[in-house]
Amino acid sequence: MEGDKISNLIEISELAVGNSKKLGVDEVEGFVQRQRIIEVLLERGEIQSERVKIRRGIGIRAIKDKSVGFSFASVLDEETIRETCKDAFSLARASPKNPDWVSLPLPKRIPPAPNGLYDDDLSNLTSDEALNIVLEGYETAKEVDPRVSIDEGKLIVSSTEIAISNSHGISLYDRGTSIAFYLICVAKEKGKASSFAYEYDISRTLKGFSARKVGELAAKKALLSLGAKSVKPFRGDVILSPDVASEILFAPLISSVNADNVQRGRSLWANRIGESVSVRNLTIIDDGLLPYGLGSSPFDAEGVPSQRTIVIENGVLKSFLYDSYTANKANRESTGNAAREGYSSPPYISASNLLVSPGTKSLEEMISEVDRGVIVNRFSGKVSNESGEFSGIAKQAIYIEDGEMRFPLRETMISGNTFESLNKIAAIGRDRRATMMDVYTPPILIEEITITSK
Amino acid sequence: MIDLLETCLSRINEEYAEMRGHTRRVLSVVVKDGQIEAVVKGLNRGVCARALVDGSWGFSSTTIIDKKSLHSILMDARSLAYSSKPLKKRYVKIAPVKPHVDEYETRMKKDPRSEDIECFVEEVLDADSEARNYSEKVASTTLNLSIVDDEIFFVNSEGARIKQRIVRCFGAARIIARSKGNIASAYESVGRQGGLEVFEETSLRDAALKAASRAVRIAPKRVVPGGYYNVVLEDKIVGLLAHEAVGHTAEADLVYVGSFLSNKMGEKVASEMVTLIDDGLFPYGFGTMKYDDEGVPAGKTVIIDKGIVRSFMHSRETASQFGAAPTGNARAWSFEYDPIIRMRNTYIKPGDWTVEELIEDVKDGYLLRGVGGGQADFNGEFMFTVQEAIRVRNGELKESYRGAAMSGNAFDVLSNVDGVGRDFKMHIGICGKEQPNYVGIGGPSIRTRLLVGGR
Question: Cystine design at B293: which of A246, A389, B56, B332 (Cβ 3.0–4.6 Å)?
Fold first, then answer.
């Protein structure tokens, strides 16, 4: 079973279920993962290292008398699996009862896998091909302008297979691929350096990916921030790039609709289903079945079917996101939002693909409507997901006056509150982008943000 | 395992090759709002090979541990080194190091391998219940306790053969309080290298209560008004500043690409009250190990001595580049990563002021307490958030505010230091530099001047 002989992941997850049943568990779930990952690292503007990782492992959740134990191992021989089953079982017996525990999920009809989640080109990519992809991005950035240099970058290509089995009869297999690449560029002129410009691309397929685009955009962003100036503190309009919008608006939003946070008093939206929580033109859908979606899968990390869940419709809060535990607690159905970091992590709630409905304006039109404000492309600071307070440095920020971009800004702090800002959205752009957080959002214009420069 | 690694390596006549076997056993208990969220026990085991072929590194790892598989990752490492060679500009050389044959084990009174785990579950539940009972304003609690038991075997083609066992016991409490429609969170951690006695000496209960009292205190408070102020920074914030905003700029790989400290060797970059050290052998430090992951003995590196830059932190590669001695700073998170330059236990040396004396001379400023999060660029620019800001007027502590951000250039902040406390504390941290790692961060309280950001 070890070595190249493991062919069928489901056999292994079934074995764990069978072993655990013999031990006397009430319920059990086995999650097996096999991954091949190629990573190429650029540091100091040079290829620093390249790694090929073969990763595999099993995570076992055992339940006895409403107590849950979890154990994992990176070794998949029969003896280790037996030991890992015993560990999960004895941890369950050592843990106090959780009166809220109802059941692991029962089998349900699984929808067909959305298109574009698995790509043979990526799963067969060689390490030489990976190096060439990085080189392409690197060379493109260099070609844009001699003032640009590359600070760091990373390519991650992964091919992942998983199997989930539980004692209620769930027995599922799935596979997926992804490629992600980012570059951080800096431009230098007359001894002065621009701020660090960050650009990336992420895709499920090789065809949908372009390292060239990353290189070009990163270099252009770096050039754009040369010659930065300061401004006096003011309150004004801020256009958030898709990345910054994900970080300061949608991360707290996702946290607030996470049913676990809701049930535990960590969400300010706990009792607000059916109420208005934002401007009327904001509609947000969590879509686990989006074709080519970064967070898509036919079923979630517990084997519950994925689905489309309307979270906010025309500014009104419609639904929270549930896994089977929180759904059972609330006496309703799971929305298929259980996720795992890998075999070593018990499931937790996560958005799948969070889709923000686009508006009608281009970025240029949005800029033209700003009297006085900034456009922020990167944010380095702290966002409190619970309270929505954010405060940090706006990087790659450009000052806007009378509807025109004037000059890049130096070390500018922006601060505000997510939940107030959701009610001060003046415009939602039309061009949506998939961010590294699996949030698909256009740029967003917020009014009345405090902007402080040293 | 170490014999198996050596057998594999002995067949190779590389310029240089190394293999590292790493077994990590983890036990962790997470309690949320009085409910056990997870009791997790885990095993991660794997081996990696790194080869230096004609000035180019290659790296490969696996979780399959038999002769055939280990031989194949060694071959993979060589072929990756070979195929990436044309794309690399630098010809890597490594500084000479005496090959050590040695063993090290964390000094422990209570080895976790021989203890029962049920008491931990109780310990976390008790601490949680005390925190929840602290005030009705406590809205939510998350506590965790972890034991990480690492065994690392290192062999290289020069004859090094090192076996280390490092045990870390640690935990944390995050408490959320609600008051007047506001929500605020506070965080405290405990732990160090050592056996289970760690939890008796520094209890999770105390940390949880400290976090609970702070969360309750700041929840109804306003966010601090922004501005440039005289501030007294608490020990852990000083440790974060020393590590995150200053330490990284002294890592030779970042110095090489033009960090703030490049070309500043021997120059004054901080007040003469400031001495900043990265120590690989700090007793029971979270980042302490006898040898780094290149088999180099760990030592004490004085980075800034009384305000003057004295040394950088090196791997064997950068030591050769810089013509310096390796400092034992090459560390890897697991067998899935190649070693890179990392700090170990980074701190500012204590001075001779009491905390009261530091506060006494502040006419209008803040005492900043409790670390939130933070980021820094290698040019010294940083932005940290602190949990609580207490107004100081004419040397007296006044009202509390919550959630302040502090920012500036770390070297301006260190140059502005005009008082260093005699209090000192070492804390635990997990640093991310492409790969995570356990580090110690510490210091005394200091007084300086910086930009406090609010709303």
Answer: B332
Phi, psi of B334, deg, nearest 5: -160, -175
Asked if the structure places residue A402 within a domain, the reply is yes
- Best of A5, A37, A51, A93 to disrupt the B interface (most B CBs within 10 Å) is A51
Q: For residue B57, what is the nearest residue in chain A, using CA coordinates?
A: A49
The answer to whether the Cβ–Cβ distance between B39 and A91 falls below 8 Å is yes
Q: Is residue A15 part of a domain?
A: no
Among residues A224, A243, A276, the one where a domain terminates is A224
* ipTM, 2 dp: 0.77
Residue % of chain A over a pLDDT of 90 = 76
Backbone angles phi, psi at A435, to 5 degrees: -95, 170
Spatial separation of the C-alpha atoms in residues B157 and B86, rounded to whole Å: 24
Looking at the structure of chain A, the number of domains it has is: 2
Q: Does A450 touch chain B (CB under 8 A)?
A: yes
Same domain membership, residue A155 and residue A189: yes
Q: Is residue A155 part of a domain?
A: yes
Chain A contact present for B416, CB below 8 A: no
B-contacting residues of A 394-423, CB under 8 Å?
411, 413, 415-417
From the list B415, B414, B441, B413, the residue with the least C-alpha distance to B427 is B441
Nearest-CB residue to A196 (from B338, B377, B405) = B377
pLDDT in tens, B193-232: 999 999 999 899 999 999 999 999 999 988 888 889 999 9
Does residue A36 lie within any of the structural domains?
no
A138 and A2 in contact (C-beta within 8 Å)?
no
According to the model, what pLDDT value does residue A1 have? 38
* A210 and A249 assigned to the same domain: no
Per 3-state DSSP, chain A is made up of helix, strand and coil in percentages (nearest 5) of: 25, 40, 35
A281: tokens are: 């033109």
Q: Which residues of B touch A151 (CB under 8 A)?
A: 257
User: What confidence tier does A4 reach under pLDDT thresholds 50, 70, 90?
Assistant: very low
- Is there a single domain that holds both residue A153 and residue A244? no
Query: Is the CB of B451 less than 8 angstroms away from the CB of A454?
Result: yes
Beta strands in B33-78 (DSSP E): 35-53, 56-62
282-311 in chain B: CB under 8 A from chain A: none
Q: With CB atoms and an 8 Å threshold, state whether B66 touches A45.
A: no
- Residue A344 and residue A257 in one domain: yes
Q: Which residues in chain B (308-367) have CB-CB distances under 8 A to chain A?
A: 336-338
Q: Which residues of chain B have pLDDT under 50?
A: 455
Does A5 or B400 have the greater pLDDT score?
A: B400
A450 neighbors A425 (Cβ within 8 angstroms):
no
**In this structure, are A278 and A415 located in the same domain?**
yes
CB–CB contact A98 B76 (8 Å): no
pLDDT of residue A450: 83
**Chain A residues 370-389 with CB within 8 Å of chain B:** 380-382, 384, 386-387, 389
Find the domain containing A181 and state its range.
120-224
For residue A201, give how far its alpha carbon lies from the nearest alpha carbon of chain B (Å): 18
Quote the CA–CA distance of B376 and A296 in Å, as a whole number.
34
Residue found by looking up tokens 């898509």 in the block: A296
Q: Which of A79, A387, A424 to mutate against chain B (most B CBs within 10 Å)?
A: A387
Q: How far is it, in rounded angstroms, from Cα B154 to Cα B338?
A: 13
Looking at the structure, tell me whether residues A242 and A210 fall in a common domain: no
In angstroms, what separates the C-alpha of B146 from chain A's closest C-alpha? 14
Same domain assignment for residues A190 and A268: no
Strands A192-193 and A425-428: unpaired
Q: Does residue A385 share a domain with residue A296?
A: yes
